[in-house]
Queue: 2 jobs
Job 1
Amino acid sequence: MAGNPDHLFSLRNNFYLGSYQVAINNSDIPHLSADDAVERDCLVYRSYIALGSYQLVISEIDSSAATPLQAVKLLALYLSNPQDKESTVSSLKEWLADPAIGNNAILRLIAGTVFMHEEDYNEALKQTNAGGTMELHALNVQIFIKMHRSDYAERQLRVMQQIDEDHTLTQLANAWLNLAVGGSKIQEAYLIFQDFSEKYPMNGLILNGKAVCCMHMGNFDEAETLLLDALNKDAKDPETLANLVVCSLHLGKSSSRYLSQLKLTQPEHILVKRASSAEGSFERAVQSVA
Amino acid sequence: MLTKFETKSNRVKGLSFHTKRPWILASLHSGVIQLWDYRMGTLIDRFDEHDGPVRGVHFHMSQPLFVSGGDDYKIKVWNYKLHRCLFTLLGHLDYIRTVQFHHEHPWIVSASDDQTIRVWNWQSRTCISVLTGHNHYVMCASFHPKEDLVVSASLDQTVRVWDIGSLKKKVASPADDILRLSQMNTDLFGGVDAVVKYVLEGHDRGVNWAAFHPTLPLIVSGADDRQVKLWRMNDTKAWEVDTLRGHMNNVSCVMFHAKQDIIVSNSEDKSIRVWDATKRTGLQTFRREHDRFWILAAHPEINLLAAGHDSGMIVFKLERERPAFAVSGDSLFYAKDRFLRYYDFSTQRETQIVPIRRPGSTGLNQSPRTLSYSPSENAVLICSDVDGGTYELYMIPKDSIGRSDLQEARRGPGNSAIFVARNRFAVLDKSNNQVLIKNLKNEVVKKSGLPVPTDAIFYAGTGNLLCRSDDRVVVFDLQQRLVIGDLQTPFVKYVVWSNDMESVALLSKHSIIITNKKLVHQCTFHETIRVKSGAWDENGVFIYTTLNHIKYCLPNGDSGIIRTLDDPIYITKVSGNTIFCLDRDGKNKTLVIDATEYIFKLSLLRKRYDHVMSMIRNSQLCGDAVIAYLQQKGFPEVALHFVKDEKTRFNLALESGNIQIAVASAKEIDDKDHWYRLGVEALRQGNAGIVEYAYQKTKNFERLSFLYLINGNLDKLSKMLKIAEVKNDVMGQFHNALYLGDVQERVKILENAGHLPLAYATASVHGLQDVAERLAAELGDDVPLLPEGKKPSLLMPPAPVMCGGDWPLLRVMKGIFDGGFDNIGRGAADEEEEGADGDWGEDLDMVDVDGLQNGDVTAILEDGEVGEENEEGGWDLEDLELPPEVETPRVSSNARSSVLVAPTPGMPVSQIWTQRSSLAADHAAAGNFDTAMRLLSRQLGIRNFGPLKSMFLDLYSGSHSYLRAFASAPVVALAVERGWSESASPNVRGPPALVFNFAQLDEKLKAGYKATTAGKFTEALRLFLGILHTIPLIVVESRREVDEVKELIIIAKEYVLGLQIELKRRELKDNPVRQQELAAYFTHCNLQLPHLRLALLNAMTVCYKARNLATAANFARRLLETNPTNESHSKTARQVLQAAERNMTDASQLNYDFRNPFVTCGATYVPIYRGQKDVSCPYCTTRFVPTQEGQLCTVCDLAVIGADASGLLCSPSQTR
């Protein structure tokens, strides 16, 4: 394992850390093997998806592209068209059943992601549980966190730590889990994000991570500073806006502007959904109590 | 042994260090005495007057003297400043072995083969005592450093200690010195002045050397029996203590070390040995191949030793003196003695933190070499050379102040170890050329091979290593396993990163290389003497020390000396103009330096001209060096501001094109050459006025005329004509006339000059017929023939494009301070150039990398795959690596799904919240609005939830934060808990963090008071209602706070009620009675004093206006009782009282009896006197007339009047 430069390292890292544009800009890496090139393309297209450029991905990946890329395209299709999720999901299921390609790590990863969006965690786990790549493990951690099963998430994390404790995804997953279990672990999560901020350029994801830690530690003032910093870097980042809403509420400041901005940029955001469903449940509750 | 300096010469028999200066004297077998500067490594002087070998030499402590003794029987005293021998002391009858000055008295002691020791007075230049008793060659003799003793060693196998106390008495009466001398000479054999105190017998052969311990009553001796013996003495006797065996041949010299508990000896067996003086064991041996050692010398003050051998000498140290340290922010960690210590730069206080291991064998150079600190984990790594390289990991306890017990450090072998991340450190495994990455439990997490053979690693930012090999350094990314930067360097000893981690200084023995973080070379500095340490200041200037200087280097490669140093220091931090450093004893020191010079240069470099300007104004920055620097760097205009000398000033002004200053200077200097040069420059710039002025000053009429011609300044031109006429300058006159186109004048001039034919020709050509005729007549026959067929025309000066004044001026820099724009332009151009350079450099790098990849790319890939598979061993996943065509996946996919037993989803945190809590707020935050409402209804009788809607929603929204985890996967919502503490255990759920807290309500209350005072009643009402509406969802910790909350409800309720009454009153315009009543009720709400006063004042005014004087008087009285602070209020009140006293009646009957205590009904606003029936609001406790029962409370707008309720529950402490 000694001395092999990993050409895609920084690309992957940027992608994991949410520096999607940086990842795209620096994706022109010479002398890649065919496999590496596919992985590179996957990362680039997934970056575009993360940036919301679904159509670009859909139009650029043609039917002759490799399976992983097709899977990525599927994700773009799924996310771009909220009305027609069923067809995407069904073709995804079809592909997964295909023995020739059903085992592809990227396909499984995409499947896991899609089923997570569908909130069908069982189905998601079916695809991702076996692991195989760091990304799959990391996704597992996230699924378990979503399922409020931090015990399982911790087990997944251990696996990742055994493979490579210093891997960016391991660190990230560790931070997610720390945040999910709370208590003294919040500090550790903060330190992990702090490490990232020292090692890599500050971006929205890192700032948000730190800010969330601060909020969980009850330090809303510092969280606000961090979030405003993040807002400067990307005024439309939904997580930044969502966390700003929360943070402002706790500081007793007006949150309405952030909320309406969030409603504009990402009407599907979980915070917006929660807020609107809360209104409904409030009315229902009033009815039931009255 | 750390060799500092070495010479090659004839055999060295004698050595002596200078006390203050870095000098050493070496006396040679060839008869020469050399004076060396061992720091610079230069031969300063040589003294060659002895005939034959010189065996003894010694510097005087304070005078510029040294003494030498040779085989020519002569003792010579030299003055090294005068480079000559002052005098010679004669008396010995055989070779002289050693000579030594007394530290206090003007004495010299000498030992000779004539079997005597002599003591000389070098001031009177006489021998004052002869010590006889040895019966063979005396090999050495020396004074005791404090007492009146001399120790000598002789080939007669004895060591003798002599008492010279009586000598001192003799000197005390110098009058009879001469007398004594003669007397002494008489008893030359068997003298009485100095007597043998002890004779130390024990060596079996001749003794070559004996020396006193500097403080203890000990003597050490070395002899031809190859032994070193240790002797102890007291007042009455001396005895042998121990023998150190080990030398293989005659021991030539031996001595105690002044600062450590060790003995150093050397011998003809070609070795120097170091012994532990207490344990009497050998510690270390240094051998030379071919050279026998003859002599040792110790520096009187610093830790230096010297040894002379067959072919020269060496100056050396036994141990490194640099304290190991690490700087982190405002803290310095360093190792001193047996402790790890901490120093705070801001408070300048130091504390001892943890004891560190003392090496089991007290070998030399076992002390910590390097120290690395991880701030977030508060851990320290210490590396030392123990057992061929060991690191130790210490965790600093949190309550680090004070002593703590010796903790068992985690340790391991390794040549160097440093932290590479918060909780990871790298240990160099030199033999396999790899680094082990370990965690804080000292477990190996990862191994990584290194790209170059590495003998030391340094920190290079998180996750990176700076690897040093003999001739290069490399920055290596441990995760990517990629070489980020690579630079050929001399052997790098220390690495200093700038505060922003963008630049690094690589310190080697005689040079400093500054590069950026990718090791792109920026500049190199060479030093002739050793570079010791360095640190970056806040401005990016690197401050470093050599053995004897503090110097700076600027990013552009300029460097200079800040100050000189007496002793070497190790800079730890530079802050402004304060340098923090450690000295060789491990003491923290601060030095204040004058940073002006380099800050000035830096400002220039950074184009911070405002800075430059203020520095020029405010400081006495001056000197030729600065001017030369400015000129050389292309800032003559700045230099201009310093210079007083007019000539320099003039030159600088011309160089910077500053004509104004040049003119001023030229006026001061007022010599032709300067005016001329001024004219040239002014002409270049097109400043015609100055050109004219300069020409006038130099009386350069031709140029002046030409200038006027060019300018079209005909008036001045004709003046010039006149001047030329006055000066009798015919040629000048003619020129000017020609320039003017004045034909008559020209003819006149020619005529006057006697050139009649020319005058005639001119006149006739230009049609001046009468003049021409007159001239023709004068010329007679000599009338010149004019060429035919040519049409003459008058040469008139062309009209100048620009008349008068200056021409468009050449754009010159008028000094950077008023011509800022020019400079910016220029600066930008410069930067572009630099940028281009940078790109070039990078391009080249790329090519390198590519070249490398082309070769190895396949190999690398294969390796990579193998590695991955290995890593995943135990995870039955090989199938995943297979290409899709292979036929196995179906099985495995089945296996995959069959293996999976998906766990049942866990309980969401919000559900836990609702289960655990009976506080409405917690339920609302969890999103369980219906249970929250039921709770509120049960506890407070709240039925109307409309006003609480936004609170519910905010609580719910604020209960979760959002974490973007995996790209494109759904966002994770994380429950935010309140009351977080560092020690909270994970996985144990706390209650939700709530967006409302008591402090906010307090703020609101204050705002409400303020609005009330300002009379903004609607605003105030809104605020107080807001408080009432928030309180049901407030959670506080303690019972005491619960009471405060309850109080707050009452306060808010009173205000809401009062404000509602007052607002109602204002609505009623046409019902004065009711108005008065309401105003009166308002005064009975429980208000703050200032508000009560206002309410009273208001009620008083209303009633007074309505002629209800008695009631008004009551309000006036109450108002006066409050001692109103506003004088006008009390005045009005008194007036009302006076008016009322005259007529104590009410015009109209009010439903208001102030004598009878009452509360006001919250809905109908009628008084409910004590004893009357009422119902109250279960939440805000407002009281109502019984008819209101079952209605919604009009004050809080939440609860139903008279409903059953269990009471406010706003703290978990209430339910415990």
Job 2
Amino acid sequence: MASTSVSLKSFTGLRQTSPEKPHFPTAVSVCNGSGRRSVIVASRTSPKLAGRNLRVAVIGGGPAGGSAAETLSKGGVETFLIERKLDNCKPCGGAIPLCMVGEFDLPLDIIDRRVTKMKMISPSNVAVDIGQTLKPHEYIGMVRREVLDSYMRTRAAENGATVINGLFLKMDMPKERNGSYVLHYTEYDGGKGGGVGEKKVLEVDAVIGADGANSRVAKSIDAGDYDYAIAFQERIKIPDDKMVYYENLAEMYVGDDVSPDFYGWVFPKCDHVAVGTGTVTHKGDIKKFQLATRNRAKDKILGGKIIRVEAHPIPEHPRPRRLSGRVALVGDAAGYVTKCSGEGIYFAAKSGRMCAEAIVEGSENGKRMIDESDLRKYLEKWDKTYWPTYKVLDILQKVFYRSNPAREAFVEMCADEYVQKMTFDSYLYKTVVPGNPLDDLKLAVNTIGSLVRANALRKEMEKITL
Amino acid sequence: MSVSMALMSSLSAPNLQCLSYQPHPQPFPKTHFSFPVLNPKRAAFGSVWVPHAVADGGSPVAVEKKEADVEGNGSPPVVAAVREGGEEEVKKFEDGRWVGGTWDLKKFKKDGKVDWDAVIDAEVRRRKSLEINPETSSNDDPVLFDTSIIPWWAWMKRFHLPEAELLNGRVAMVGFFMAYFVDSLTGVGLVDQMGNFFCKTLLFVAVAGVLLVRKNEDIETLKKLIDETTFYDNQWQATWQDETKKE
């Protein structure tokens, strides 16, 4: 009965180009060279490997690849980590939740800054500070990707993985049921990733594709495509007195001018700030959105000099096929980036670890051959653990990023302490803690109230012309 | 009965608007840029806004509203042109009643009480002005206004009641005509119709229809919304379908 007056304009992020029913990439039926099919054979009946351990190649040495390689090598599997550019500065927001520091034993010195305050700024510049409910030991860690990635790779190498500086080219499927995958790659010297390398070949029993949004491994197994957003970012060195403001504060700007379906941000890095924005549907206008973001932060970044411009695709949902034979995808290659916040580092590392654990378990510490069913266990575990998180963030994005009134309501709601506490608890610890039902009810009523008011104002706005 | 059901509809009209389709995402080029650009300011803020004609002391350009007269100290909102660095003209939103990042309610007094409709009007103008010309957010004069300071009955009176009147009118007309029509066809009177399950269903459909479909475009919008609620699930379905096919 309570018809909410959420502006029911259909959400930008989901408009189709053609009027037909959206065609979702469905799984292509697998035509496996070896011709085996239908019955999943349990790993217990897989043959024991004679005289050697299971060999697994991890393609891609980011958080996903690094954590997968570490877990594999700790578990007794012979691991090869292939990374094309060992000093790669991946364009990235660089925010990691608190739980990642604990779960992955990250040393505190790779965290450049601890963000303890966030400012949400609405289309009409209403600014709300969130972070008042954070306890003194809680923070969002800002890292430099090159530092984090290199640390995780080094740790994997210390545990016995072989780090290869090379570019993965293609993969030959196994000829028989327990045959090996043959990987073709170009090996480089000196870790710089440029110049001429040697063509090499590597034979392994299983492959983990952790090579990011434009994954070649995904192409090799015909994993299908996903919708993706473009994130565009400029690194700006601002004067020291302005940098003080961003000491441990990050900002999020919402508005149609900044992005029709995402947000613009100012994140502090080691000695400069990263100002950026992103979009799924209006990729052609990204420069315009970036200008608008800089305009909104103008006073605070006045006098700044742009030192670097970067952009990268961000997957919006998992690929149709994340696993084929003994090849599995993890991290961005699989499409594990959340909606609403666009968070990917933690999920990449976690999925790498989960996949590696499934391999270690299925192979009994590297003693047995594994097969597809072992890797499927990783997918099931992942979906079960994180599907609710993804779904909730998707709903939040659909409700609160759909129009300017919704964004105004969003920022208004963020002023509420209960909202702040719930948001940070779920972000920092990646668990949804059930709150007090009475508070939840009050929150629901307030949310609806905010949405109604903002939409009512918007309707009036349409009637007038300035 | 239909009237009372319509009255129970709580909030004002969902604005079922729909924008046109957007082009399909283009494949992303693999390279990412890393060229340094010096002195972004000149390049960035090159867009020059044409200054509006300034409303000179007359009443605001706002459309006819019952309480359009801004009384008290209210000077009509003036859009001032500010010269910045001698390069572009940047308009900032200014209004005599906007003090310290929020509306000063003392300036909206009418007969000793705060004129909430004027506050709503002022906020509407501010948001409109910011939508057309987004401004930089500033630490020196932060915006602190929260719409919840305007009491709920002011919102009701201004937004909900006129819409509710419209919808109740529609339902009453439809209800009366349908009752007459059914009576003439079947001979079942109004009281007996109310007891019949089929008629109650029709009544429910009529009320829901009037609530949800307020303009012609709403039908399309509703269909899109239903698609939207399942869109993300569909995107994930593709990956789950792959798994069930294997088993």
